[in-house]
Design brief:
mainly alpha; 13 helices; about 75% helix; globular; disordered C terminus
């Protein structure tokens, strides 16, 4: 897809560099999102970024020699994936991050692999190992801690946190369906069209949720324009390109674990960029979620095969 093939163990620099790029770009995007939705309605902000990021990924796919066409029979499933992973995720997460600190938002959003593990139990019939059970309980503990902290300090239902959890559920459901269906489409092509297809319902809904006219866009600050550009070129195009390059060239265990630093970077980026000061609840929840992700995403150990010549006893 990207034109790079893994040949033997990846050198350390080649392994670490894309992980660092992904963690920094996606982690720093949480305070950047906060900057964007502070001046623009959430759906308007996303409607301005998704189509250009989608076109960017299609250009990457085309320049890599992949087809950017999708067979007609696959379009209904691509539409479902776009509705879940793009429209559903972006629609809810931006309303949530508008109401919460960016660091807390990142922690809650990255409970996604935990939800995906549970959904995969039903859709993919995957086994729930003891370690995955432990990961689920750790992740739920972190989530409940933040929800309870919101309810206690905000004196009302933690609406922002619930919106981000709903977004994570949409993302998880789309991720599991993607694994279940396995579309025979180049990843950048699929992602580009998913971004464009997911943009359509967001663009249609934007006028009903505080849409901003063209004239008003001329009066937003440089910070908001920076957030738009960041989400088009870095978080939208470059990060997705790096993610799929890693999926193609690095071992599965390495590429899957690459999401672990993202909420960590998100917390510290919020402190540096926005002056946020996470409390004890955020730090404890961050540790719980990272421990949960490690438990869920690390590959299971396989039983070692007996040495040659050693007989094994089969059950009667």
């Amino acid at each position: 897809m990207i034109g790079i093939e893994a040949r033997g163990p990846a050198p350390l620099a080649r392994t670490l560099l894309p992980i660092i790029v992904l963690a920094v770009v996606w982690g720093c995007n949480w305070p950047v999102l906060k900057m964007g939705v502070a001046e623009l309605p959430p759906l308007t902000f996303r409607a301005l970024t998704l189509p250009f990021a989608g076109i960017g990924l299609l250009l990457v796919s085309w320049m890599s020699g992949d087809s950017i066409a999708i067979a007609r029979a696959w379009w209904p499933r691509v539409a479902v994936l776009a509705a879940l992973s793009i429209a559903g995720w972006n629609g809810f997460v931006l309303f949530g991050v508008q109401q919460l600190p960016s660091g807390r938002s990142a922690i809650l959003a990255y409970t996604m692999p935990i939800w995906a593990t549970l959904i995969a139990l039903v859709l993919l019939k995957e086994r729930m190992s003891p370690r995955k059970v432990m990961g689920f309980l750790l992740g739920m503990s972190g989530m409940v801690l933040l929800l309870g902290d919101d309810a206690r300090h905000l004196q009302h239902a933690p609406r922002g946190a619930l919106l981000i959890i709903i977004a994570a559920l949409f993302w998880a459901f789309g991720t599991v369906l993607l694994r279940k269906w396995q579309p025979p489409i180049a990843q950048n092509t699929l992602s580009g069209w998913m971004l464009l297809a997911g943009w359509i319902p967001i663009a249609i809904a934007a006028p009903f949720f505080g849409d901003v006219g063209t004239a008003q866009l001329a009066h937003i600050s440089a910070r908001a324009w920076f957030a738009i550009a960041y989400n088009i070129f870095l978080a939208g195009t470059v990060a997705h390109w790096v993610w799929f390059m890693m999926a193609r060239t690095l071992p599965v265990a390495v590429s899957s674990m690459s999401s672990l630093p993202v909420p960590v970077v998100g917390v510290f980026a919020g402190m540096i960029v926005l002056g946020e000061r996470p409390g004890t609840a955020e730090w404890v929840a961050l540790l719980l979620v990272i421990a949960a992700l490690v438990a869920v995403m690390l590959p299971e150990r396989r039983a070692k095969a007996p040495p040659p010549g050693v007989a094994t006893v089969q059950p009667d």
